Amino acid sequence: CVTVDVQAACRDSTVTQELLKEGFHRELLVKVELEEAAGGCAVAARVHLPPGIYVDPYELATLQQHNLTKAVLFPDAVDLEAPEYLARDLLVLLFLEADARCSRCFRAAVPVHLRYHGPAEGAGEASVVLKSPEVLLCCCHGHLSAECWEPAEVDTPCSSDSTAPCQWHSRKHRPEYEESMLRVPVGLREHSSLVCALTLLTTGLCSGLILAAACKYGHFS
């Protein structure tokens, strides 16, 4: 009897993600290097976004119209104004483009935006943890090793330009990659009373000035 070490036989793909730019408006760059060439296969990354970060579906649609990125958003309806504590998780299926310099390398980028968080106690920032993407392959005319790849529950075609159904596959055995940590500036809970008082004072002052200007310069019939 011969025992086959599937974990050793299935060489791991390399997945990296980078958050480019600064502030609340970033760009998520995903790069994948497969263990072997994937000729004829579509390669995608399934990215899980926690409530603190989101993709703007209107911005995504504009980018796709100009062929600058290809992705599918689940759910496709996103509340852009909701704060982090009222938002929900999102899934992004990001179609990767082949790298001309490497037959096994793929990459793609998509704009992401951070949400406003509620005030915290004792710390002026909150954390948003972005897990490593899951690599998916769709080989409509090829064959994937059953020991290394298993069918994935992804209800979308192999391409964002197609409507034909396709069976996606994911790795049975893949390493746990490091998570990306984002720091979001937030207000301090102990400053709530001061902020409320100043907001009320400013609102009253501005309302009074507007009313005074209307009475002085307004023409009433």
From TrEMBL:
Keywords: Endoplasmic reticulum, Glycoprotein, GPI-anchor biosynthesis, Membrane, Transmembrane, Transmembrane helix. The keyword Membrane applies. InterPro entries: PIG-X/PBN1, PIGX. The keyword Membrane applies. Its main location: endoplasmic reticulum. It is found in: Endoplasmic reticulum membrane. GO terms for cellular component: endoplasmic reticulum membrane. It is a single-pass membrane protein. Pfam families: PIG-X (PF08320). Pathway: Glycolipid biosynthesis; glycosylphosphatidylinositol-anchor biosynthesis. GO terms for biological process: GPI anchor biosynthetic process. SMART domains: PIG-X. Belongs to the PIGX family. Stabilizing subunit of the glycosylphosphatidylinositol-mannosyltransferase I complex which catalyzes the transfer of the first mannose, via an alpha-1,4 bond from a dolichol-phosphate-mannose (Dol-P-Man) to the glucosaminyl acyl phosphatidylinositol (GlcN-(acyl)PI) intermediate to generate alpha-D-Man-(1->4)-alpha-D-GlcN-(1->6)-(1-radyl,2-acyl-sn-glycero-3-phospho)-2-acyl-inositol and participates in the sixth step of the glycosylphosphatidylinositol-anchor biosynthesis. Probably acts by stabilizing the mannosyltransferase PIGM. This is Phosphatidylinositol-glycan biosynthesis class X protein. The gene is Pigx.
